[in-house]
Amino acid sequence: MFQPPFTPAARVDDSLRQAGYAVLAPPDTAAWLGQPLDGLLALHRHWDSLPPDQHLKDGGRYRRRRHGCWVIDGPQLTQASHRAHWQSLDYNALHGGIERWFQPIEPAMADAPAWRALLSRLGRTASTLRAPQPWYAEAHPFRIDTTDGIGRPTPEGAHRDGVDLVAVVLLGRHGIKGGESRVFEAEGPRGLRFTLTEPGSLLLMDDARVIHETTPIQPDGVSVGHRDTLVVTLRAGGFQGP
Q1: Fewer Cβ close by (within 10 Å): the C or N end of the chain?
Q2: 69 contacts: CB under 8 Å, gap ≥ 6
Q3: pTM given for the model
Q4: What pLDDT digit, counting tens, does each position of 108-135 carry?
Q5: Domain residue ranges in the chain
Q6: Minimal CA–CA distance to 168: which of 188, 147, 145, 195?
Q7: How do strand 63-65 and strand 68-73 relate by DSSP bridges?
Q8: pLDDT higher than threshold 80 for residue 94
Q9: What is the DSSP annotation of 71-102?
Q10: Cβ-Cβ contacts under 8 Å for 224 (sequence gap 6 or more)
Q11: Does domain 9-236 have CATH number 2.40.10.10?
């Protein structure tokens, strides 16, 4: 496995501006967040109750998820009414162009101080990257497992999400091999590959500048393994919709 090119917490904003991404080791995630890492990792208990994704067009049974939306306006966080997740075919050739309804994020997770701290910190990072403004955040807790023998974290392949900032937090890996993160310049030849292995590791990406994907996972010594992540996207101007 290739080791991540970790970014010190103090260099996150510079790395996003210069390279279009930043990768934080767990201690630097805590420093960047300004919160003990235990609070963020405690959210992981909610992954055991994720319902199956009913919208996989490849016929797979390997993904479980929930979905929730917030508006981040400076220090103010407002949870938006539950809505469908929608992407255009330009950004998701496999699942784009349809309204996908998922069960909402559990209230106990949405009310956790660490959750609110994460959203607020992402809002500040997005405002530094672009300009201060309201941010429309969509959150996706994912569990990808090897029920089918193989699990695909990004079945749509290498892609952009049609947003401004993408955050991927690794919460856990169990009994798997694979799951390599790949980040490529959207308008250039450079790319990198690495594997997030430590809970609390964080990948931040400027969605306008980079394309990303995660390679499939396979079981490694157990009958069914899994990879748990939290993906949060921030977009200016409003949520994506038809």
Answers
A1: C
A2: 79, 80, 81, 82, 83, 136, 137, 138, 139, 239
A3: 0.96
A4: 999 999 999 999 999 999 999 999 999 9
A5: 9-236
A6: 195
A7: unpaired
A8: no
A9: EEETTEEEEPPP--B---TTT-TTTTTS-B--
A10: 145, 146, 147, 175
A11: no
CB 145 within 8 Å of CB 184 = no
Residues near 47 by beta carbon (within 8 Å), at least 6 away in sequence: 64, 141, 143, 171, 172, 228
How far is the C-alpha of 87 from the C-alpha of 81, rounded, in Å?
Answer: 18
228: Cβ–Cβ under 8 A, 6 or more apart, which residues?
44, 47, 141, 142, 143, 144, 170, 171, 172, 173
